[in-house]
Design brief:
single chain; 250 residues; mainly alpha; Cyclin A, domain 1; Arc Repressor Mutant, subunit A; 11 helices; 10% strand
């Protein structure tokens, strides 16, 4: 966890010229611009909801550490839900109430989660990660470190396209890793959605190496056939099976 915004009153991002009295409006513009590049759904209107209550990103960072203390797999699902909620669902993930809602949704124990928060144990783990990040010279987010079995590593800074990760994997494996080709058909699209339960249009496009518009057409067809449903998510949609429609209001 990187703790990007310690205190909103003193935060300034020089690379994107974000900070000061108009910060929330600036971030909204930045997120819309970023969405046009990475393709994932964003609802930038959510930033106007934050003006009266948002102070720092640290509570959400600490929440993930609390989830990690229970179960790593569920913590990763929780992190995904935090990201979906913040970016595309206009939810205030710095709020403990929202965090508990998502904790229950992914199957974590809310009592254990609260104990980790209130005892300060989760915060201790977060502070340790902040220190580790500084020691490694990490100044921007996201930052990725990819390491092979020989201890050789490649660091990628900032937003990266999937192809850049493929290059890193090839270089670190001396091209011994072979990319699995996934055939584009309805069955495999449905398998992908079943595995991850809720996916974005761009994720389908990336997996099958097609344009986002083509992925949307395929997903719309499957929805018309009543095999999946869509959930509006800011400037795009999430797609899931009917049996997971209880997430529609999540």
């Amino acid at each position: 966890m990187g703790g990007l915004v310690d205190d909103i009153k003193t935060f300034y991002d020089p690379s994107n010229a974000i900070g000061g009295a108009s910060m929330f409006e600036q971030v909204a513009i930045h997120w819309d611009d970023a969405s046009s590049r990475h393709g994932m759904p964003v609802d930038s209107r959510g930033f106007s909801d934050l003006k009266d209550s948002f102070v720092s990103t640290h509570p959400a960072n600490i929440a993930y550490k609390a989830a990690q203390m229970q179960n790593q797999d569920l913590a990763d699902k929780f992190l995904r839900r935090l990201r979906e909620a913040a970016a595309a669902e206009r939810k205030q993930i710095h709020s403990l109430e929202t965090q508990l809602e998502l904790v229950k949704e992914v199957g974590l124990n809310p009592d254990k989660f609260l104990e980790a928060i209130e005892s300060g144990k989760a915060k201790e783990k977060f502070i340790k990660e902040l220190s580790e990040g500084r020691q490694r010279g990490i100044t921007g987010f996201p930052t990725f470190k990819i390491t092979n079995t020989n201890g050789e590593s490649i660091r990628l800074n900032g937003f990266q396209r999937y192809e850049r990760f493929e290059q890193a994997f090839e270089n670190l494996s001396r091209k011994k890793m072979k990319k699995k080709q996934v055939i584009l058909n309805d069955e495999n699209v449905l398998k992908f959605i079943e595995k991850y339960m809720k996916v974005a249009t761009q994720e389908v496009a990336t997996l099958f190496e097609i344009e986002k518009e083509e992925a949307f057409k395929i997903l719309s067809k499957l929805q018309h056939e009543e095999k999946i449903i869509s959930i509006p998510a800011g400037n795009d949609f999430f797609w899931l099976f009917h049996e997971h429609k209880d997430q529609k209001d999540s």
